[in-house]
Amino acid sequence: MMAMGKKFTKTKASAEATSKSTEQPPRPPSPAAKVAEEQRRRDCPVDKDELGRSTWNLLHTMAAYYPEKPTETEKETMKTTLDSISKTYPCTHCAEDFRKDLKTNPPAVSDRDALAKWMCELHNRVNVKIGKDVFDCGLVKERWLDGWKDGSCD
Ligand SMILES: Cc1cc2nc3c(=O)[nH]c(=O)nc-3n(C[C@H](O)[C@H](O)[C@H](O)COP(=O)(O)OP(=O)(O)OC[C@H]3O[C@@H](n4cnc5c(N)ncnc54)[C@H](O)[C@@H]3O)c2cc1C
Questions:
Q1: Range of the domain at 117
Q2: Alpha carbon nearest to ligand 1 atom 4, residue
Q3: Is 8 within 8 Å of 46 (Cβ atoms)?
Q4: How many domains does the chain have?
Q5: Keyword annotations for this protein (predicted)?
Q6: What is the DSSP string of 56-74?
Q7: pLDDT per position as a tens digit, 10-50
């Protein structure tokens, strides 16, 4: 396991919430603070949430483009890839839960639709665990492959 877990044990949001808990009442940001936020560098190390978003981008897009009729080798490669990510993911507690989840819910690698659904359900189990909304898996193709039907991604 990579030794980066400590950095990802506390989100920026929770750190801010902790540090602000004694401030009464909350003040609106000053114009200077707004400018500083707008000018914040974008080439900084990622936190747990940015890492998560980037990883879900990769995982859902991999599933969306997985073959409709995969060969046995492609199925094995996908299983190995997910297994490797679960062993190297640099958020220690996220990775531990991911490994447990893979044992209980082995990846559905039979074809593209099955994998995209499996990935959506995996993501939803994480969403539930951390108190986020459940995503409608019926929309997974629009979200990750074709773009929304209203044309807003065209
Ligand atoms: C394998 C893994 C395990 C993780 N475990 C933890 C953990 O234990 N604790 C923790 O705090 N964070 C964990 N994370 C990070 C967490 O899942 C989020 O990425 C992070 O909290 C940022 O959330 P977000 O609201 O920006 O959207 P994200 O959850 O990152 O989602 C990005 C986008 O994906 C789409 N989406 C949401 N749900 C689904 C779904 N079910 N199917 C398809 N698309 C969907 C939405 O459009 C959403 O905007 C984990 C990430 C990964 C990849």
A1: 48-146
A2: 94
A3: no
A4: 1
A5: Disulfide bond, FAD, Flavoprotein, Mitochondrion, Oxidoreductase
A6: HHHHHHHHHTS-SS--HHH
A7: 444 333 333 444 456 667 788 888 777 777 788 999 999 99
